[in-house]
């Protein structure tokens, strides 16, 4: 068995950091910060060395940190927090229905270069070992046949997939990305707390942590000579490219979707690495290949970086209830048709049941001991180990052998027999005796600690560091940093982001200036492109509906503003009351307000602005847009995301009176205009932008037609027509053309038929025609497709129509035609479900 972090906890000096810091003359601020800092008895600490003095790397950091004024420090902390909030860096704890703001510690975890080299060597050896074990388990099977690993220790894991036995991994590797959770043992060395081989998470958050803290403390970051993490991601991306069987492969990141706990990270990695973010429904199998459903038809996918657990990857051969995977994926792997990273089934190496066998496997494969030990672990599937665990039950932690939690006991963490009632303790003993293969005993461990900033003081907190290794053609590359989680409880034995923990950036510090060399290829070796790439149908669908939701919100807000203006201007005039009634009726019909409130204009306006239970309220529509935008994080700029977030926050704020309702509506309208400007100026003019624009144009045309039908009806008077001009923002245009007040025919022409008016129905239909014509044709033979056929017909109708011939009936028919066009766009370009088909042929698709 490996050595364990729990035995011989050691009796360090226990000196606080304050003593070491006070010994440095002239550094009163550092002494003030650290005067209460005391290393916990017997627990290794990152700030205080075993001899009781501060480690040099932390002394260097705090000396530089103390050069900042207290006000400057607080401003920089605030800047980091503001960036996280504005960029929408979030996560979702297990059981949560809403995202939480990412809790980033304001101090990094510091590791000096020499210490990091030792840690890296242990990680590389461990990654190599696990790759060799996986290759044997799914290949020749000699380890089990020769008794190096008991068969039951493997077969008991749900992550051992018989469906991939004998399948050679396309690309040649089972592990493309490996991670280990580590902490310091009592001897001061790094110890492995757990292996992550399934689909290691946290690399994206590590990247975001670095971006935030290096910007907030740019000068400090540079002066500390912190190793860059960008080359690691470049090497990982290049390795995945090299694993494919063509020069310019298409790579996708498979995510469970926006309700995943770490969806933000998936989007961050996809955007940073230039991968397509895809869900199971975005993919389809044909022949021996995986394809992405795109707005241009099916496109071949070469590499799939998965963040979906193995068992859910293929409902045909694995978990039949899964809706996250791709039917037929395993068969494509057998035919060498796609590289999946990590290979399905690799999660078996996370089983605690295997930990006790790794030291002997290291000697078998390498002829050497593990360079980095792990917690002493006894798998209770073996008689001797089971008796050892039962004999010292009060001095070990009981864990599940194959997954989170202990079978038969609540919670996701270890069970300590010493803390159980006698009846539960006996039940645990009986369970271990009856089915020992499901349990392991592990030496009791208390996590080592690192400094955190707490109200102007430096205090120790337990932490776990996740270190990442990427397989490349040149060997394993280690990220110089990692994903650090810090617990709030001093006696924590595990750290979960769902338990109120915080994250920290990890700085690997060098004594010399760090290299600025890049792993980017030479400019002349890259083929120039001007197209952003394919757009998955799901992404196009979300962009289309993002545009529609925002345009609906704008229409509702314009009605709220008009309602407030009419109430202020009318005050008893029968025409004004009539117009107010029409606005209220429209808001009720749209689902923005309740029928019961219809007689109270102020209540209708308030409900339409922010009633959470009304699907047509501005708040509900903006939140729908926000949920849709969440699925597009890799495609939206931080500024665009910030605008949507600020709109949702503003509309959720309590309004005090009628005036504040109108004010909130006006401010939100300004933000909607900002988003439209960002889309026009910052989005690449590829298919994604077209679908966002098509959603906006289709919805604006529908809403404008409804406005016209409601306020430019056959008997409409000046008051109604004036409201219509206000709703569609055409007051100035009308008055610049006509020297008389609003008249029915000119208003109808301007609002519905004028192709030069950017708010008219005709303008929207012309724009829709242009966008549809710019999209790929999905049918062969040159026949005009249904969306284009409907759009062309609508444009012809509007081009040849005359204002005097328009009436309420004609406007209603126009509205129905526009709705049909929007539906036709959806059904043609956004098929849903695993059985959704495309009209195009698969042969010759790139």
Automatic annotation (TrEMBL):
Residues 1-20 have a biased composition (Gly residues). Residues 536-830 form the DUF403 domain. Pfam families: Alpha-E, CP_ATPgrasp_2. Residues 1-29 are annotated as: Disordered. Residues 108-487 form the Circularly permuted ATP-grasp type domain. PANTHER family: BLR2978 PROTEIN (PTHR34595:SF2), BLR5612 PROTEIN (PTHR34595). This is Uncharacterized conserved protein, circularly permuted ATPgrasp superfamily.
């Amino acid at each position: 068995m490996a050595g364990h972090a729990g035995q011989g906890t050691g009796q360090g000096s226990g000196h606080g950091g304050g003593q070491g810091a006070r010994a440095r003359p002239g550094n009163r601020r550092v002494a003030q910060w650290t005067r209460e800092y005391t290393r916990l008895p017997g627990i290794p600490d990152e700030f205080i060395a075993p001899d009781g003095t501060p480690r040099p790397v932390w002394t260097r950091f705090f000396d530089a940190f103390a050069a900042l004024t207290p006000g400057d420090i607080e401003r920089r902390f605030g800047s980091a927090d503001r960036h996280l909030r504005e960029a929408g860096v979030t996560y979702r704890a297990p059981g949560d229905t809403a995202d939480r703001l990412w809790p980033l510690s304001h101090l990094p975890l510091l590791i000096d270069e020499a210490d990091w080299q030792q840690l890296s060597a242990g990680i590389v050896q461990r990654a190599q070992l696990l790759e060799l074990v996986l290759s044997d388990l799914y290949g020749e099977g000699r380890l089990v046949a020769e008794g190096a690993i008991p068969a039951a220790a493997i077969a008991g894991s749900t992550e051992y997939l018989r469906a991939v036995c004998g399948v050679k991994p396309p690309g040649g590797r089972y592990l493309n990305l490996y991670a280990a959770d580590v902490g310091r043992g009592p001897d001061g060395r790094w110890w492995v707390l757990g292996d992550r081989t399934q689909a290691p998470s946290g690399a994206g958050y590590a990247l975001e942590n670095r971006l935030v803290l290096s910007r907030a403390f740019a000068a400090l970051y540079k002066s500390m000579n912190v190793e860059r993490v960008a080359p690691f991601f470049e090497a990982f991306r290049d390795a995945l490219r090299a694993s494919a069987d063509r020069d310019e492969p298409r790579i996708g990141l498979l995510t469970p979707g926006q309700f995943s706990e770490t969806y933000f990270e998936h989007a961050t990695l996809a955007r940073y690495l230039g991968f397509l973010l895809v869900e199971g429904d975005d993919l389809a199998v044909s022949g021996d290949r995986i394809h992405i459903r795109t707005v241009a038809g099916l496109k071949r996918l070469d590499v799939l970086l998965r963040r979906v657990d193995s068992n859910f990857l293929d409902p045909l051969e694995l978990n039949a209830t899964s809706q996250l995977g791709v039917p037929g994926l395993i068969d494509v792997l057998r035919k060498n048709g796609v590289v999946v990273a990590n290979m399905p089934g690799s999660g078996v190496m996370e089983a605690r049941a295997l930990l006790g066998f790794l030291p002997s496997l290291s000697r078998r494969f390498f002829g050497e001991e593990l360079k980095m030990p792990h917690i002493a672990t006894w798998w209770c599937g073996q008689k001797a180990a089971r008796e050892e665990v039962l004999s010292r039950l009060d001095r070990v932690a009981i864990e599940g052998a194959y997954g989170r939690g202990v079978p038969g006991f609540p919670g996701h963490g270890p069970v300590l027999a010493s803390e159980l009632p006698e009846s539960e303790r006996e039940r645990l003993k009986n369970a271990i005796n009856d089915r020992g293969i499901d349990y392991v005993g592990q030496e009791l461990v208390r996590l080592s600690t690192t400094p955190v900033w707490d109200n102007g003081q430096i205090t120790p907190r337990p932490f776990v560091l996740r270190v990442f290794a990427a397989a490349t053609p040149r060997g394993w590359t280690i990220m110089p940093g990692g994903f650090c989680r810090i617990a709030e409880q001093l006696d924590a034995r595990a750290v979960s982001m769902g338990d109120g923990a915080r994250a920290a950036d990890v700085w690997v510090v060098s004594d010399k200036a760090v290299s600025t060399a890049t792993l980017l290829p030479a400019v002349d070796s890259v083929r120039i492109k001007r197209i952003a790439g394919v757009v998955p149908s799901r992404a196009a669908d979300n962009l289309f509906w993002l545009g529609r939701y925002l345009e609906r919100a704008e229409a509702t807000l314009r009605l709220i503003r008009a309602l407030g203006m009419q109430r202020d201007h009318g005050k008893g005039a029968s025409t004004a009351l009539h117009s107010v009634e029409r606005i209220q009726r429209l808001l009720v019909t749209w689902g923005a307000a309740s029928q019961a409130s219809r007689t109270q204009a102020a209540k209708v306006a308030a409900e339409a602005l922010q009633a959470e239970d009304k699907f047509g309220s501005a708040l509900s529509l903006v939140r729908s847009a926000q949920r849709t935008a969440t699925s597009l994080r890799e495609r939206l700029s931080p500024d665009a995301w910030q605008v949507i977030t600020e709109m949702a926050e503003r509309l959720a704020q309590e309004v005090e009176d009628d005036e504040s309702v109108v004010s909130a509506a006006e401010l939100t309208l300004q933000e909607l205009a900002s988003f439209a400007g960002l889309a026009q100026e910052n989005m690449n003019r590829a298919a994604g932008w077209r679908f966002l624009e098509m959603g906006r144009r289709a919805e604006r045309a529908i809403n404008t037609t409804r406005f016209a039908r409601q306020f430019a009806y056959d008997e409409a008077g000046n008051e109604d027509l004036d409201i219509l001009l206000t709703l569609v923002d055409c007051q100035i245009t009308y008055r610049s053309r006509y020297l008389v007040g609003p008249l029915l025919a000119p208003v109808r022409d301007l609002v519905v038929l004028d192709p030069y008016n950017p708010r008219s129905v005709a303008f929207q239909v012309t724009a829709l025609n242009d966008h549809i014509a710019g999209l790929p044709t999905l049918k062969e033979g040159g026949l005009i497709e249904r969306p284009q056929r409907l759009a062309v017909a609508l444009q012809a109708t509007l081009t040849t129509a005359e204002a005097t011939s328009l009436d309420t009936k004609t406007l209603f028919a126009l509205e129905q035609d526009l709705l049909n066009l929007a539906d036709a766009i959806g059904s043609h370009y956004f098929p849903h479900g695993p059985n959704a088909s495309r009209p195009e042929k698969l042969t010759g698709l790139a």
